[in-house]
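Checklist before submission:
- one chain only
- standard amino acids only
- sequence pasted in full

Submission:
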Amino acid sequence: MFTKRIILCALLSSLAVGLKAQTIVNQQVVIGKTDSVNSAILKEKRTVWIYLPDGYASSTARYPVIYLLDAEWNFAAFTGMVHELSEVIGNTVYPQCIVVSIPNTDRTRDLTPTHATVGPDGKYMDYMQTSGGGENFTAFLQKELMPHIDSAYRTAPYRILVGHSFGGLTAMNIFINHTDLFNSYLVIDPSMWWDSRRLLHQAQYALKQRRFDGKSLYLAIANTMTFGLDTASVQKDTSFGFGGHIRSILALKKALQAGKGNGLNWTYKYYNSEYHGSVPLIAEYDGMHFLLDFYDFPPGYTGAMTDKNALKDIAKYISDHYAEISKHFSYTVLPSQELLNGTAYYMLSNGFADKAFALLTLDIKSYPNSAEAYDSMGDYYASQKDNTKAAEYYKKSLALKDNPDVRKKLEGLGKKK
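Returned file contents:
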């Protein structure tokens, strides 16, 4: 009777979701789609790469949005990580998210906030001639791209910005000068040396003088020092070289520390074994864990399900957990039906009928118009040999949506009388 949703038969997990590979089209594995915006601000058509969660097309849910810069470098690895940690084998380390990644047309123009032509070593760099379009790029994000994404996709009002190098510089510029555009910022080895540390000076002032309540920031610092230096000695070294890059980031770290009490939820990590080009992958993993550390259930939760003395009111535990998630997101987040049903059927198959009933009651409360919720409660009553109540809930399910399987179960109850 209960084979239709015994999701946890092999993996001891209450966080089961529908598992499937990325879409296969014409024998090609497709990890996303493209979309575009004709930008009046940038005076060009801008293509963006979109990742949608599995099941997006068949659901009505809304999803937080991650905006990821430098799509050419980061899209494949980042979306693979998001997919793995939000959907595969029951993972809910991250929520299911939409990822909007932006390929470059003129990277130097778009990802630098001011015009400058001098590199971190004080040397003139010809390729910087087009620099300084960062504010226009931010206006494009705010006034054109985000409204398009919010109208074309089912987005929730929670946004994360991820940027590396010049992208990290852009993320810091938006964080300091357009703070409310995003809820959280993942800033990876940012080019804070830009324009004689102009943005760094702005950040040093703002972090002391302003409040950043409700905002989160993760700063990743790569090892870009000359051989023989460490993070202490490099701050004293002013010799020619790339040391100006890490010195400016270490100064940003100090500014963040000096802003203690300004309401910002932040942390940093120095990656001694990673250089500028290798740091994004591990920093994205660590940074997303920090920015979303409130989302997942704590270690030990899965094991507690098999302990009759643990989590006696598992439905309340799940409900309270999602209430806390809702506080962080500032909008209501409900536990998924996959979670509630999967856990309930697991409990029912392992002799925890009371816990299953509580979970299915929460399912109906959370999704009162769901035919599946009433069908599941019907299964519960059928398992308890209460055919009258089972029939009542099967009929409620059929009233919402006709389903041959449910009708067959209802007819089967009549034969048992």
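Reviewer check: The longest strand covers residues 155-164.
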